[in-house]
Every structure is written in C-alpha cells, then in structure tokens.
Amino acid sequence: MAGRTNSPGETVSRRLLTVLDCFDVAHPALTLTEIAKRSGLPISTARRLITELRDWGGLERLADGRYRIGMRLWTIGTLAPQQRGLREAALPYMHDLFQATQENIQLTVLEGHQALCIEKISSTKAVPTLTQVGGRLPLHATGIGKCILAFSGKELLKSLAEAGLPRMTPHTITQPGRLATALAEVRKTGVAYSYQEMTLGAVSVAAPILALDGRVRGALGIVAHSRAAVERLAPAVRTAALGIARSIR
Predict the structure, then answer these.
(1) Is 233 exposed, middle or buried (0-12, 13-18, 19+ CB in 10 A)?
(2) pLDDT tens, 67-111?
(3) Is the pLDDT of residue 154 over 60?
(4) Strand partners, 206
(5) Hey, which residues does 220 pair with through a beta bridge?
(6) How far apart are CA 12 and CA 77, in angstroms?
(7) Which pLDDT score, from 0 to 100, does residue 185 have?
(8) pTM score, two decimals?
C-alpha cells in the first residue's frame, strides 16, 4: 500500500506528492477517506490538498465522489523522454507482432527493482493478464523482466536476491543460482522465456532492446496461452527488438 506517515516537517509540495502517490494501477480511483488513510494525512489536510490538485488539473472528481489522476498529469507524463521515444519507436513493431500472433504484446522499461509496462496491445482472444499500462512486473518471473535483468549488471540481481525472490506460482524460479544461469542463457541467445512463472496458464517470450553500448533500454515480449509454442515466436520478437533499437539510436 502507498500509505505514508504524516510528518510536521513535510513541505506542502511533498504532501501534494504524497497524495498523488496514493494512486496506482490497483487503485486508480479513491475517496477522500481512502486518500487520507493511504497518505497518513488528516482528513482536513487531504481535502485541502485534493482541492488544490483538482483546481490545477492534477486530479479529477468522478460522479460517485471518488478522485482519479487528471488529464494534466497524463499530458505531462507523456513528455518523459525515455517512455515517449521508446514507445513511439516500438508501436509499429508491436502492431506487426500483434497482427501476426493475436497475442498480448508488451513493452517495458526498468523502474527501480521492477519492470514498468509503458505500452500493451491485446485482444479478447489473447490469454487474460493482469498487466496494464503503468503496471509493474517482477523481474525474475517474467520474460521481459529477465531480459532487463540479464543486461542490467550484477548489482541489480544481487539486490533482488538479497531481498528474496517471491514465488508467484509453483513454477517461479526463486533460487538465485538458477536465476543467474537462466540470465546467462538470455545474454547468450538474446531471448528470455517464462513458463507459467508469473501466471498459471500463461507463457511468454521476450527480447531486450539494447543501446549501442550494450545498455538495456527496455524489453519487448509476447504473452500467450501455455499451450502455445512460444519458442517459434522467438525469432520474430528478437527481430522486432533489434528494429526498435536501431530506430532509436
């Protein structure tokens, strides 16, 4: 939960950010009481800050009284250079992959210790997933996450291992040694797989999007039903990731 402890020394700007931090993919709309509870702010303070954010366009009030992120923040967010440039370069390739497979196509970047989904294309025919644009995924349990992890340096893997690798399903790799071996294979082949490690009934194949110096810019992946032979999709994903990387250099 995004709750905070109210501190008398906090600045007004910090408290405004604390209110905004209450919202996430799992909580896109919140009541005044919920915002106060999640932020740790008094009701009166939360109400005042919400009013300021609403007047500025950072929050919108719904018909049922709840609040959600406003269009002004969304507009500003689209200006983020990494997200915007990568997303614009990737979309044509993502649409091509979707037309060919009719499966979920995802584009992610590294944010902290997780993979942040910045674009997704799917259909009702594709396997259901919980991933949404703006949602975060574990690095160790997803194909796109493994791609990012494999090319992000040993310190990130060490940090994740020390914190513990949570088991998402019975198939999740939770042993650091096994994960390190899998990541070495990703670096060797240029593709990563997840076999029901994140969600039962779903498998994925992904490829990293690399800069000229080898730094990982993001990852492109396909999520399909567990019955799908994702190995056959690997060349297409790899080719698309290479095309995206060339177009943003």
Answers:
(1) buried
(2) 998 888 877 776 666 566 888 899 999 999 999 999 999 999 998
(3) yes
(4) 192, 221
(5) 107, 207
(6) 21
(7) 96
(8) 0.73
Query: DSSP for 2-42?
Result: ------TT--HHHHHHHHHTT-BTTBSEE-HHHHHHHHT--
Q: Using DSSP, state whether 122 is helix, strand or coil.
A: coil
In a 13 Å sphere around the CA of 208, the CA atoms on its Cβ side amount to: 25
134 falls in which pLDDT band (50, 70, 90)? Answer: confident
Reference 192, options 108, 118, 126; nearest CA is 108
Q: Which two tokens stand for residue 25?
A: 């993919």
CA contacts within 13 A on the Cβ side of 128: 1
What phi and psi values does residue 3 have, to the nearest 5 degrees? Answer: -65, 150
Using one digit for the tens of pLDDT, what is the confidence trace for 198-223?
Answer: 999 999 999 999 998 889 999 999 99
Buried b (16+ CB within 10 A) or exposed e, 182-215: bbeebeeebbbbbebbbbeebbbbbbbbbeeeee
Distance of CA 18 to the CA centre of its chain: 21
pLDDT in tens, 27-75: 889 999 999 999 999 999 999 999 999 999 999 999 999 999 888 887 7
Residue 117 near residue 134 (C-beta atoms within 8 A): yes
pLDDT over 90 at 124, yes or no: no
Which DSSP helix (H) or strand (E) runs through 221? strand 216-225
Q: What is the DSSP string of 176-193?
A: HHHHHHHHHHHHHHS-EE
Structure tokens, 191 = 């593709």
